[in-house]
Amino acid sequence: MNIQTNDFLNALGDSKNVAGGGSAAALVGAVAASLVRKVYDNEKNKNRHTDKIDEINKRIHSLEEIQERFQYLIDADPKALEPLIQAYKMPQDTTEAKEARHAKIQAGIETAARPQVEILELLTDLAIHQEYLVKMQPKGEIVTNLAESLLFADSAFKVAHIGARTNYEALSEEEKREDRLEHTETLLTIGRDRIASAYESVSKFLEDKEWS
CB neighbours of 147 closer than 8 A, spacing ≥ 6? Predict the structure, then answer.
């Protein structure tokens, strides 16, 4: 994503533009990942973590890949809607045409949901990094950035989940629909549980100025 912030916001607010919640969730996920990266960068320079430098650098590399993927999905999400949009425009004046249209719509639903599911998967991976940083017990104002990253990630989780769920609920094949919905619910539950636990610890530190 190389567009200016104003351009992105204008596109998001334009009813004629297909960019929506998925793109916004990917952007917020990238912001959360950037804040986690900042905390890692701060901690790796601390003398008390000299024995963890290799591990921290490895995790920073993993985090950078997550952030890059979020950035890719900002643009990929609206593009994934195009096959579905075109499918709805297909003719349905004959039985064969209706069947062809239905098949294309069902395939388009899967394509449209995929970026939102990937956002959920990336956020779940990000939550592992956030948990690790809580265990490192950073000190000072940098902990505020960790708290902010958790709040951003939680919001992105909810937004991406709504998008994926809305798409999958339109699948006509019950078994496939239930399978896809169960997967998104599992990602949401696991990820948000991790975030809630980490945020509880971070909030307590910010209140007491020490880790419990």
Answer: 199, 202, 203, 206
* Closest to 150 (Cα-Cα) out of 199, 204, 87: 199
| Domain annotation covers residue 145 | yes
Structure tokens at 37: 């990266």
Q: Alpha-carbon distance 30 to 22, whole Å?
A: 12
Per the structure block, which two tokens stand in for 154? 């939680």
Number of domains in the chain: 1
Q: Is residue 98 in a domain? A: yes
Write the CATH number for 175.
1.20.120.680
d(CA 155, CA 157): 5
Range of the domain at 85: 10-14+16-208
Token pair, residue 155, equals 């919001």
Q: Which of 73, 52, 55 is nearest to 123 (CA)?
A: 73
Confidence of residue 8 (pLDDT cuts 50, 70, 90): confident
Instruction: Kindly state whether residue 50 falls inside one of the protein's structural domains.
Output: yes
pLDDT in tens, 29-73: 999 999 999 999 999 888 888 888 999 999 999 999 999 999 999
Nearest-angstrom CA–CA distance, 34 and 31: 5
Q: Tell me, yes or no, whether 1 lies in a domain.
A: no
Predicted confidence at residue 60, as pLDDT, reads 95
